[in-house]
């Protein structure tokens, strides 16, 4: 890389400072109004024998190889009293189990990792934002017993450009498109090219699953392909989340502040017109639930974009929310719920196909307090 370690360090530390209490950076656009309730569902609080400590912003994904949900990392508290986690847990439908993997999990001083299962390599893949000490973004893989970590920021023989996003955590998104068999990553801010140049534009990347070199930071690398011809959403998308809609057979990406839904066709993004959407927010949980026949959104926090000292737009969480919404392929509808979880943002959520349940764990109840409760979302009986 041609960019100096000093400038990389300054950038990383700046990002950590502005995101330590949940603020995310991005541009802003007009926001839509909300819609009325149309369907009743049931939230059920579970009582597992053991649980991870209270946290928010952890990585979570269903691991089809082990048929369990994997949770790792996250944080609790607010700077300068923040605790970062690097533990790894699995959920078997009734209880949480603390795992003891070879290799530390994707946390340390890192928050907001994006995590997804890749069927082609049968591994859980996590992409983590910049850390301290001049480190850039890393790709992690979980094979059921070991975390391996690879740098994304150095050239390798498999690609002329490798992604090194320098956006703040909780703005980017990662998702698996089963239709095209692609693991897709989107960075709405800017990235470093293979020569260390900062490219200030949104970018979309596809992971090949190939890795080279030693599995140590700044040594090994991963083969990400920059989708240079993709029509990517603009920088004003703000905080985004990806989810695969099995009914539509489309990888979707939702911008929770603007209320815009995008779909991926294997090579480019396009906007799905919608007349209704949840109120503007950040930090929502988004999961496809086949039992309910669509994508479900839960909670988040209100946010009013402001400018920081550098002129960048920031999204700081405001009032926590606990509403539940269903996407039917063309619009959002708010669901009537019984016994909903307490309001929260940056919660951990995934769908468990073995037990046919939307799983929700923890999340931030405020900028300084987190939960460690476990919930399931079920159709009303």
Word description of this protein:
- The chain has 381 residues and is mostly beta strands.
- It has one domain (5-25, 32-379): Neuraminidase.
- 4% of the residues lie in helices and 43% in strands.
- It has an eight-stranded mixed β-sheet, with no helix packed on it.
- A hairpin with a 4-residue loop joins strand 11 and strand 12.
DSSP helix fraction: under 10%
Weakly predicted, low-confidence segments: 1-20, 154-162, 215-219
What is the strand tally? 31
Strand content: 35-45%
Describe the global form: globular
Radius of gyration: 19 Å
- Broad CATH class: Mainly Beta
CATH architectural group? 6 Propeller
The structure class reads mainly beta
Report strand order across the widest sheet.
23-24-27-28-2-31-30-29
For the record, give the distance between the C-alpha atoms at the N and C termini, rounded to a whole number.
58 Å
Largest sheet: 8 strands, mixed
| Helical run tally | 1
Brief summary:
By secondary structure, the chain is mainly beta.
Question: Which features would summarize this protein structure in a list?
Answer:
381 residues, mainly beta, Neuraminidase, eight-stranded mixed sheet, four-stranded antiparallel sheet, 31 strands, globular, disordered N terminus
Q: Which secondary structure elements does this structure contain, and how are they paired or packed?
A:
Elements: H1 5-19, E1 24-25, E2 37-45, E3 59-63, E4 68-72, E5 75-76, E6 83-84, E7 88-91, E8 96-99, E9 114-118, E10 123-128, E11 138-142, E12 147-151, E13 173-177, E14 182-187, E15 191-192, E16 198-199, E17 203-212, E18 221-226, E19 240-245, E20 250-255, E21 260-264, E22 269-272, E23 285-289, E24 294-301, E25 306-307, E26 313-315, E27 320-327, E28 332-338, E29 348-352, E30 357-364, E31 370-379
Parallel strand pairs: 2-28
Antiparallel strand pairs: 1-26, 2-31, 3-4, 4-7, 5-6, 7-8, 9-10, 10-11, 11-12, 13-14, 14-17, 15-16, 17-18, 19-20, 20-21, 21-22, 23-24, 24-27, 25-26, 27-28, 29-30, 30-31
């Amino acid at each position: 890389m041609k960019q100096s370690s000093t400038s990389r360090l300054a950038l990383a530390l700046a990002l950590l400072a502005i995101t330590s209490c949940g603020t995310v950076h991005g541009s802003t656009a007009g926001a839509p109004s909300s819609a009325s309730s149309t369907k009743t569902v049931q939230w059920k609080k579970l009582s597992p024998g053991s649980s991870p400590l209270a946290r928010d912003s952890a990585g979570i994904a269903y691991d089809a190889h082990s048929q369990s949900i994997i949770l790792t990392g996250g944080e609790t508290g607010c700077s300068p009293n923040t605790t970062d986690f690097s533990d790894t847990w699995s959920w078997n439908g009734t209880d949480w189990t603390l795992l003891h993997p070879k290799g530390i999990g994707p946390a340390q001083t890192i928050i907001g990792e994006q995590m997804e299962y890749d069927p082609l390599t049968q591994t859980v893949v996590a992409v983590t934002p910049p850390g301290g000490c001049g480190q850039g973004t890393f790709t992690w893989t979980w094979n059921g017993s070991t975390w391996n970590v690879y740098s994304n920021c150095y050239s390798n023989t498999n690609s002329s450009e490798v992604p090194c996003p320098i956006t703040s955590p909780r703005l980017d998104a990662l998702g698996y498109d089963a239709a095209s068999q692609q693991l897709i990553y989107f960075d709405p801010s800017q990235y470093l090219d293979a020569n260390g140049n900062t490219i200030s534009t949104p970018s979309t990347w596809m992971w090949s699953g190939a890795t080279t070199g030693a599995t140590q930071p700044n040594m090994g690398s991963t083969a990400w392909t920059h989708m240079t011809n993709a029509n990517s959403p603009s920088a004003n998308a703000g905080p985004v989340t990806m989810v695969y809609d099995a009914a539509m057979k489309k990888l979707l990406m939702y911008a929770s502040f603007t209320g815009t839904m995008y779909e991926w066709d294997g090579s480019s993004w396009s906007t799905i017109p919608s007349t209704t959407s949840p109120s503007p927010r950040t930090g929502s949980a988004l999961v496809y639930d086949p039992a309910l026949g669509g994508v479900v959104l839960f909670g988040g926090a209100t946010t009013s974009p402001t400018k920081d000292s550098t002129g960048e737009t920031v999204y700081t969480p405001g009032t926590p929310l606990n509403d539940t919404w269903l996407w039917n392929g063309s619009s959002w509808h708010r669901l009537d719920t019984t016994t909903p979880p307490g309001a929260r943002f940056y919660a951990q959520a995934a769908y468990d196909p073995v037990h046919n349940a939307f799983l929700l764990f923890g999340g931030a109840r405020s900028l300084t307090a987190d939960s460690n409760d476990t919930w399931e979302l079920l159709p009303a009986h």
